[in-house]
Design brief:
- The protein has 253 residues and is of the alpha/beta class.
- Helices cover 36% and strands 25% of the residues.
- The chain contains nine helices and ten strands.
- The strands form two sheets. The protein has a six-stranded mixed sheet, sandwiched between helices. It has a four-stranded antiparallel sheet with strand order 2-1-4-5, covered by helices on one side.
- Strand 4 and strand 5 form a beta hairpin.
- Helix 3 packs antiparallel against helix 4 and helix 4 packs across helix 5.
- Bound molecules: adenosine-5'-triphosphate (ATP) and magnesium ion (MG).
- Adenosine-5'-triphosphate binds next to strand 2 and helix 1.
Length: 253
């Protein structure tokens, strides 16, 4: 059984079918990139995985746990949703750090709140772990800085550390470098590449085609709410089979 199994996910907004019948799976330690033009449903797919949207139908299974199944689910409480959401970490295009907290406090906030509900979390270790993550992100000299004192690339690296602090099974990125200039893009892609080298399981929505080709195992090409083509990233990006994929990739050549 795969680590993550996404089956027949559909999502409508009003009369618009945004996700039509999305199925894919991935193994632990794999990196999947999701590519496709604007409006194809990439963000909506990540939001469904993270319980920020509820699919209209389909199922999501992670490890042995059935996270979501439209045919059996009853209404979930906020607490149940928060628990399910912990399987995934999400890093947004626009960093979304809390402006009133320092870098390290941004990272500690969610684990500290969780430790109040869950006595198995060692509250005293949270800060040490946050510091470790900041070092891993190359930010040992930015621990006590506020977001407005950091460059976009630094803010995004804090956001990645913040997502990792909750030990998600899968780390998801929604265009993590789209708000950055090329110089800062490089430093963020570098830390994502290092995470891939450490076999961090990741789903990355990106327009950085050469990065997707080199770093991910699987590429998924979406268009108008469907997965048009999926497979090994080098095959999909270097030699797509289908005309729609070829047309899309031609913009990046
Ligand atoms: N909350 C919403 N209500 C209504 N329509 C929405 C909502 N969220 C997304 N949509 C629509 O769903 C479609 C897919 O949007 P989505 O943001 O998932 O695309 P995307 O592939 O992430 O695009 P981009 O590359 O521009 O980020 C778009 O037509 C969008 O307008
Ligand atoms: Mg999007």
């Amino acid at each position: 059984m795969s680590f993550l199994e996404v089956k027949n996910i559909k999502k409508n907004f009003g009369n618009t079918e945004v996700l039509k019948d999305i199925s894919f799976d991935m193994d632990k330690g794999q990196v999947v990139s999701v590519i496709g033009s604007s409006g194809s449903g990439k963000t909506t797919l990540l939001r469904c995985l993270n319980f920020l949207e509820t699919p209209d139908s389909g199922s999501i299974r992670i490890k042995d746990e059935l996270l979501f199944d439209s045919s059996v689910n009853t209404a979930l409480s906020e607490k149940e949703i928060r628990k399910k959401r912990l399987h995934f970490g999400l890093v947004f295009q626009s960093f979304n750090l809390f402006p009133q907290y320092t870098a390290i406090d941004n990272i500690c906030l969610a684990p500290s709140l969780l430790s109040k509900e869950d006595p198995s979390i060692d509250a005293s270790a949270i800060r040490d772990r946050a510091y470790e993550l900041l070092i891993q992100m190359g930010l040992s000299n930015r621990v006590d800085n506020y977001p407005h004192e950091l460059s976009g690339g630094q803010q995004q690296r804090v956001a990645i550390a913040r997502a990792l602090a909750l030990n998600p099974d899968i780390l998801c990125f929604d265009e993590p470098t789209s708000a950055l200039n090329p110089e800062l893009t490089g430093e963020v892609l570098k830390v994502i590449r290092e995470l891939a080298d450490k076999k961090t399981t990741m789903i990355i929505v990106t327009h950085e085609m050469s990065f997707a080709r080199d770093v991910s195992d699987i590429a998924i090409f979406m268009d108008k709410g469907v997965i048009v083509e999926q497979g090994p990233s080098k095959e999909i990006i270097d030699s797509p089979r289908l005309e729609r994929t070829k047309q899309f990739l031609a913009y990046y050549r």
